[in-house]
Amino acid sequence: MKVSIIVCVYNTKEEYLDKCLNSICTSTLEDYEVLVIDDGSTKDYREIVEKYNPVYVKTENRGLLAARLFGIMIAKGEYIAFVDSDDTVTFNYHAPMLEAAEADDCDIVINDWAFKTEASVATCKGDSTISDSFCVEGDEALKKYTSQCGREQSYFVMWNKLFKKELLRRAKADLEATDAIMQKQVYAEDVLNTFFAFKHAKKVKNIHTGYYFYHLHDEQSVSVSSFLSLVAQVDAMTKTLKTISNNIGNNKYAQEISEDIKSWHEMMARTHYSYAKALKEDGACEYVKSEYKIEKLSLSKAKDSYGYIASGLLGKNFESIDSVMRWIYKKGQDVSVNYDACDEYIAASLSYIEKKKGIKITYSKDAEITIIRKKNSFKERLFHSKFINTLGMTLFPKGSKLRSFFKSKL
Fold it and tell me: Best label site of 23, 173, 189, 324, fewest CB within 10 Å?
């Protein structure tokens, strides 16, 4: 088996999990398995599981980190990918990643992603994994990983990558040799996994063939809504950063990596200090100061969010676009299509189908099949402009109600 896709679920809405599994199971990927690791949910997912027939394992509630590590151990594929249970992928996401991994003998392949809300779908133009193309080897891999100092989540999350299974198992062994694993850890667990993976990776590259849709909603575990949730995040983050700082090893860029992690530490201190100020609870700010061991803290700065300030709208009808391309892929016959040839995603996907299926896809304005990207209004484009994003992130501190309202309109 080539690929194992691990989906960890804990009380996710049934409709979210249904869309997640559907996006995976109707993709162009072949010779794969889906592992649904249910981390002790109180919800009943039998109806959804029976529909897609993944490998379904229910465990006691031990947290996302433990669930992912368990998935890594039972996976049968040569490569492993992760999809969060409330997210989706475009129909041609993982297959090109596997092709790139095998063609170039890569330990890690990174692909594009986008934020998805009820209002819009948008990529982050400042994210270097999306805006640039790179291939790094040896010690340069870990240097690349820390160079953005935690400001671009695309490096430390698990879900936009394809990993060699043996690399993740080696990373798992190193992680378990430390005292970094916290009980039921959810926040920052991906940093622990990806740091050790990049540390041992011989080659890492990125490609641009599709999108992973990171679904922003109110029920996410990363939100800070109380003093207890702030404490949990601060404890997890400070311990995680200390762990990775102590495990750089003999990398030839060790000094630079150490400085990057220090900047990461300072940035997260500002982030959690901003949340603490917004909570307006006694002891919150003092707790952040004591745990990050920084006497004088400032609120988050614009540079902390540079990767997200400039965004590009993708349109809101990706599901209908992908459904047409899935139909063409499944049909496997020559076809004439009417589409905007300047749309890189559609053009690249149709080209992939041509190559994969050995069919001919021609363009015609009179074609029977039409694929149209829904245009965004002036108001939508204005809200996603760099000026408005910078203004909003500057005026509305993290954790504030105005910040949440602003983000909900994006």
Answer: 173
